[in-house]
## 1
Amino acid sequence: MALTLLRGMRTPISFRSSTGLFFTVLRPRLARFTTRAESAQATEAKAAAKSIQLATKEASEQKLQGFEAIIGIETHVQLSTVTKAFCSCPYNYGSQPNSTICPTCMGHPGTLPVLNEKVVECAVKLGLALNCEISMTSKFDRKQYFYPDLPKGYQISQFDIPIAKKGYVDLDLPVEFGGGHRKFGITRVHMEEDAGKLLHSESGSYSQVDLNRAGVPLLEIVSEPDMRTGIEAAEYGAELQRIVRYLGVSNGNMQEGSLRCDVNVSVRPVGQSEFGTKVEIKNMNSFSEINRAIDYEISRQILLHKEGQADQIVQETRLWDESSQKTFTMRKKEGLADYRYFPEPDLPEVVLTTDYIDEISKSMPELPEAKRRRYENMGLSMQDVLFLANDDNVAHFFDSTLEHGADAKLACNWIMGDIAAYLKNEKLSIDETKLTPLELSELIASIKNGIISGKIGKEILVELISKGGTVKGVIEEKDLVQV
Ligand SMILES: [Zn+2]
């Protein structure tokens, strides 16, 4: 009761104790959105793709040899809140080590955590986006374990009552990987805090600890074991990344550790109902690494089965090594009992009202799946649809161009072709260029009306995207009218 930090309460979340809420705001989105250049290249290779699809399918079936893989994923998403989950420290990736810490996030005795309201808001947003049931009452629990970068000796998490559960995610596999729609179950979404980070010396003789990340809010998303291949798992991860970016709750950047996927893989003979021993894989820094790590692990386990050494598949954590393209043992996995969870005595229950959830629900943007279906209904190909909906900045640019009267297919061709190539080359995102949706629609109209040729149009685009200005201005300035 002594430590009550109450800066203001905007939304009707109530707590069953005297502890107040720490009101913070989301910082502007920091994400640098990359474009899906692979998809653009894939357009050219459309004909080749079909035969590759068949070959890939045959190869993977041959590799499975009567076995099937069961894959589930635990994803940690770091929230882009201004302050940490239970104290007023900020968190900025790459800050001077131990510069954004306080007695609370360092776990000093006598300090008390105070929940950041924005963490609850982000959790509800993500829960709704993943079609989950939202728990009107949930609570925090302590997960006990010792680790040098965990100063308190426990992690505040949610154990038996997560804030959201029983959801699903819809996605479309890329055409070059065989295509098709998939629906994967979401078991739960819960709130927790991050640990610090160990920095190992080059000689390996000592390690240093940076506690800046300790106490940073995370959402953990646990999937149902619904994936069967590396590509399905990678696309599931990519869809979560799109969703958190669309929602603005995280920059979803894998290199910075803002989005981390731990994958559980087991294999079993086709027809067997019980699961095989599952192995966890960590340390993957991209979706392509997730894909390759899983496919390697599936092959490794099937080989052990075939050689009569299935007992060598043990419950363990393995790391992916990008240089050798293999997984290797890191440690034997602790069971649930090792964590000795119990309810966090320093935090009240989180009680939500239907008004609060309705308000968040109304503020939700159009999500990737809804966008894909809308673009599909415009008659665009799945390749176009996936490219446009992959990045919400690109989707927004496309939508705005259509609002200015441009034809959907033509606008899409410009965005996926010349514009995407320019962005890739200059390492820019579409909202960082001088080109506006209005001028792109003017450019398309000028070609359509025969004022300029398509070839001249490409030259004008380069001017607009690098220097800005208007289509009319560039045509006059360079005297480009078609005779
Ligand atoms: Zn702190």
## 2
Amino acid sequence: MHTHIIPEHLPEWTKKFGYGTFIHLEHHKTGFAHMMQGEKFFREIASNCWDPEVRIAEYAKFNTKVQVVCTIPVLFSYWAKPHDGAGVARFLNDHIIDLVQKYPKNYIGLGTLPMQDIELAIAELERCRKEGMRGIQIGSNINGKNLSETGFFPLWEACEKLNMCVLVHPWEMMGQDDIKKYWLPWLVGMPAETTRAICSLIFGGVMERFPKVRFNFAHAGGSFIPTLGRIEHGFNCRPDLVAIDNAISPRSYLKHFWVDSATHDPDLLQYILRYQGTKRVSLGTDYPFPLGDLEIGRFIEKMNLNPEEIEDIFCNSALEWLDMKKEDFLF
Ligand SMILES: [Zn+2]
């Protein structure tokens, strides 16, 4: 339920809009492309980032058939002018909508929204729903704003109304400019960002006020579950700082939301399963990127879980999050 995809060809938005550092692709050799951020090289990607057939074949090697796809967070472009951001989102969503129509048994799509403008975001959410999408992916903060901000409440309300699930993915990691060396924004910043998002949604009362929004958090919820003891203790010992917008303990929200399985560590996944249960942990790979679980779910198969538990993690948990049925994907 957590894989990334990009159209093979992107408009040169930086030139078109005349500002910013929008992503475009330069196909410098067969099967590979440079992701360019404005004029700056961002990373090299391979055809498994855009070619649906290559992706299906790579997944088949690990007996996996269905991928929930969403954009790559660097394409969120929340910093862009609202109407430009909405244009980028529409382009990316149309690509995924088309993909899902062509391969309905292999792909499920999550939309991206111009979160810098709540009205445009809701309009795009409604369009995504109408086009058959089951959910969206958003960043862990929006231009530095936490997801607890009341300005986002209308979006949660719309997600409840339209039955759209939400994947929260870390991006624009806090303090990243201070920790550029050793890939620390990815290794340290991302788990912290996801924890920031979960704590914001709990402490800000979003999960309490909008209980029907089905949130799923990337990378097993970052460091939220491993550090929940500290978070809960803070809630108890300094309610004057922590419990100001929601008087309910953070621990009581376990099993309310979903997390993916991308831990690279069976012991940690076992620990997370103890708190979340198999119905709230879904197979997430972060494919096709190197930090992902690219031997899809193999470490989970080697854990001492029974077949029902594995089936929950590999399939039932994601289906419940998406509100879809297994029968829709059987040939
Ligand atoms: Zn990811």
